[in-house]
């Protein structure tokens, strides 16, 4: 097996790709960073039902890695790995969603939880408790928590999913957490939209209950698994999953006001 390229070799590969569109340099860069795809695919697979093959996720992620190599701006002070992980995960999620494999009942339940949370938060001026959510949804607390687990296992919900900004037919796509300006789409309107999403997300995270805020920080910034987060918080992996799902549904409800009819 050939040894991985040294830093100087990598810089030379990037230079050849940018200056000469060298296909050999492009291929070597993709191969060098391919382990990132397996790492991201493994993390995504851990949140999905068992019938979703990790090998399929890797093939979807390779498309995102190739796009990242083609579009990365080497003049910016951003590590390629940071940029690529967002693109890889986005490509995997986009492909899974295009297949529409999530049961309709689960999608409906997730939307119902989002809408109910937004209404209660508007009414109470604070995040609703599990008891209040369960009562509003006309179910027991145990049924509500079981519903969160079902949504967590069956719905692709990630803060780093790719969102379109600017014109819906030709605008760039950005991540909610790892937004990076694209050199090929310097549209001021799109840049303002990116900043708006980041500002909304920052404010929404600050308003989360403390434990959910910790879960978001550990999962998305420290790259801990739900099992590891459970150990940090002294709860089960299932409870950590519930906290993560509740946090993401709260955030989605707060930054998608057009989807929520607040009475």
From TrEMBL:
Pfam families attached to this UniProt entry: Sigma70_r2, Sigma70_r3, Sigma70_r4
Database matches in InterPro entries: RNA_pol_sigma-70_dom, RNA_pol_sigma70, RNA_pol_sigma70_r2, RNA_pol_sigma70_r3, RNA_pol_sigma70_r4, RNA_pol_sigma_FliA_WhiG, RNA_pol_sigma_r2, RNA_pol_sigma_r3/r4-like
UniProt lineage: unclassified sequences, metagenomes, ecological metagenomes
Name the record gives this protein: Unannotated protein
GO molecular function: DNA binding; DNA-directed RNA polymerase activity; sigma factor activity
GO biological process terms held by the UniProt record: DNA-templated transcription initiation
Alphabetized UniProt keyword annotations: DNA-binding, Sigma factor, Transcription, Transcription regulation
Keyword Translocase attached: no
Segments forming domain RNA polymerase sigma-70: 225-251
């Amino acid at each position: 097996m050939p040894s991985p390229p040294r830093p100087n070799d990598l810089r030379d590969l990037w230079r050849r790709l940018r200056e000469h569109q060298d296909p050999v340099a492009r291929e070597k860069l993709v191969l060098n960073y391919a382990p990132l795809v397996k790492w991201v695919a493994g993390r995504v697979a851990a949140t999905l039902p068992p019938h979703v093959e990790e090998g399929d996720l890797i093939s979807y992620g390779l498309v995102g890695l190739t796009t990242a190599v083609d579009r990365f701006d080497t003049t910016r002070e951003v590590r390629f790995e940071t940029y690529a992980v967002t693109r890889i995960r986005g490509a995997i999620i986009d492909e899974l969603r295009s297949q529409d494999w999530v049961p309709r009942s689960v999608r409906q339940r997730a939307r119902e939880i989002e809408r109910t949370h937004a209404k209660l938060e508007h009414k109470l001026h604070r995040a609703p408790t599990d008891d209040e959510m369960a009562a509003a949804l006309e179910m027991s607390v145990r049924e509500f928590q079981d519903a969160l687990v079902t949504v967590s296992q069956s719905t692709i919900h990630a803060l780093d999913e790719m969102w379109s900004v600017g014109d819906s037919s030709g605008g760039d796509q950005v991540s909610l957490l790892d937004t990076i300006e694209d050199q090929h789409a310097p549209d001021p309107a799109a840049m303002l939209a990116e900043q708006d999403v980041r500002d909304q997300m920052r404010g929404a995270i600050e308003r989360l209950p403390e434990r959910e805020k910790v879960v978001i920080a550990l999962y998305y910034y420290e790259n801990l698994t739900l099992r590891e987060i459970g150990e940090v918080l002294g709860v089960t992996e299932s409870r950590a999953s519930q906290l993560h799902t509740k946090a993401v549904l709260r955030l989605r409800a707060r930054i998608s006001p057009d989807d929520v009819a607040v009475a």
